Each structure stands twice: as structure tokens, then as C-alpha cells.
Amino acid sequence: MINELLNKYWLCETSLEEERELRRFFASEEVPEHLLAYKAWFCGRDEAAIPVLGADFDKRILKKIKPKERLSFHLGRRYVTGIAASLAILVAASLYVYNQTDWADPSYQDTYQTPEEALRAAQVSLSFVSSEINRGQKMVYNEMKKTAPITDLINNIDKLEGE
């Protein structure tokens, strides 16, 4: 009988009355030796002794948890700073070369024979630059998609803290 109740208990199929019966059985002095290992489990569980969390429990726990910094914002700031620094270096180098060049030197001559040929070369170069910029933007977008679940989680936590 007790073995059947124990099996039901471990399968979470006992009623409250059956659990009380198990506690009464293990509280008695006549517990068979092969069941002594369960005695501490059933005798040590006093329902009245279960601690109740105070009303300020959530506040105390949340105070101890430090929110992580938003990675997506700092990551974006780092990319923007790097791009701005690269552009500043490029502009400075271009201005230096432009100011050092003597445009009146007769050794400078046109590279292309016709304006159409020069236009076509410029279009090819600009198309290449455009494709590389688009490729870089796709890479940044793909990396940002990886952080989207974390960003959503942080936003949800912020909403919960605001309520």
C-alpha cells in the first residue's frame, strides 16, 4: 500500500489526503528499513514552515541586479566613430594632395580621348564603390539582426521597470 502511494507521489498523481497519509506513515516509528531514506523527505516538509516572500522581495532582488549596458547602442556608436574618423583622414589626405599638386604643369594630360569614354570609366568606378558600400551595409544589417532579440529583451525589461 505504501509503495503504491510512493509511486503515485513520485508521478505527481497523489491527492492531498494521500500525501498526508504518507507524512503520517513516515512520522511513525514503524518505518521499514528500505524506506528510511524517504523519512527525511516526508517528515522535514512542514507546510507551515515554508517561508513566505515579503512584499519587498522583488524590489530587493531587482536592486541587486545591475542592468547590462545596451550593446547595440555602443556598438553603433563605435561604428559611426570609426566611419567618421576614416572620412576625416580621407578628406585631409585629399586636401593635402590637392594643395600640393601644380595643376599648371604641362605634363598633366587627359587620360581619355573622349568625354564619353571618361564618363563610362567614372560610372564603372562609382558603380564599384556603390556595390562595396552596399555590401558593407548588408554586413552591418546582418550583425544588427543578430542583436535584435537582445535589444527586444532589453526594451521589454525597460517597459516592465517603467510600470
How would you characterize the overall build of this protein?
The protein is mainly α. The protein contains six helices and no strands. The longest helix is centred in the C-terminal third of the chain and has 48 residues, at 115-162. It is rod-shaped and about 115 Å long. The chain crosses the membrane at residues 79-98. Keywords: Membrane, Transmembrane, Transmembrane helix.
The overall strand count is 0
Counting structural domains, the number is 2
Please state roughly what percent of the residues sit in beta strands, choosing from under 5%, 5-15%, 15-25%, 25-35%, 35-45% or over 45%. under 5%
Can you tell me the residue ranges where pLDDT is under 50 for at least 5 consecutive residues?
A: none
Order of helices and strands: HHHHHH
Mean of residue pLDDT? Answer: 83
What integer value in Å does the Rg equal?
Answer: 37 Å
Alpha plus pi helix count: 6
The residue fraction in helices comes out at 55-70%
What's the shape? rod-shaped
Q: First CA to last CA: what distance?
A: 53 Å
Content-based structural category: mainly alpha
The description of the largest β-sheet is: none
Transmembrane segments: 79-98
Keywords: Membrane, Transmembrane, Transmembrane helix
